[in-house]
Amino acid sequence: MRSLGLSIDAYVRRYVEETRDALADPYLAKAIAAIVPLLLEARTKGRTIFFLGNGGSASTASHFVVDIGKATIRGDGRRFRCVALVDNVETLTAWANDTEYSRVFSEQLRNLAGPGDLLFAISGSGNSPNVLEAVKLARELGLRTVGLTGLGGGKLKGVVDVPVVVPSSSMQHTEDVHLLICHLLTAYLRDEAAEPAAP
Q: What is the rounded distance in angstroms from the CA atom of residue 176 to the CA atom of residue 178?
């Protein structure tokens, strides 16, 4: 809710408190516990992890790829195979121009994805058509799916294998927490996660 007349100091305190409230729910640890095994399995089996998002969530998707792809390299050289579908501007604009914007991610998945791969779909509202189209195709192709959302979860929470719904009605706080999840997963995978035995 917007409040007028707050001092900068009071506004900052309120914003930080609201963000802290969005982190206090037990959903966060449960989400990490559900996501980590999927990531480790993808690394063990050499699967590709695709990240995508619309608007501000696109930058979070790119950030995820940088952090998980680089900061979690094991001493023996094992790495996560990560792709951010938001980073190929030429492909995005070609599909948007020649077909429709809702297909900019799903058409890339058709070229790149296979059964057993993993998709991270990020949408603050949970209702971005291009994100939902990608999830729909991913499920058809046999990918596992994780959805990061907020504002009640939108349609995304009902169509992914692992929904993570930030308990906030603020897009800013939702996106803050999504980035924290990126850093939390990266730190855990770097510091604590045990690798499952290869099949």
A: 6
The one-letter code for the residue type at 155 is K
pTM here is: 0.92
Q: Residue 36 in contact with residue 71, Cβ under 8 Å?
A: no
Pairwise CA distance, residues 103 & 87, whole Å: 15
* Domains in the chain with CATH codes: 8-191 (3.40.50.10490)
Percent of the chain with pLDDT over 90: 88
pLDDT tens by residue, 121-151: 999 999 999 999 999 999 999 999 999 999 9
C-alpha closest to that of 173 among 38, 10, 25, 30: 25
Q: For the chain, give me the number of helices (H) and strands (E)?
A: 7, 5
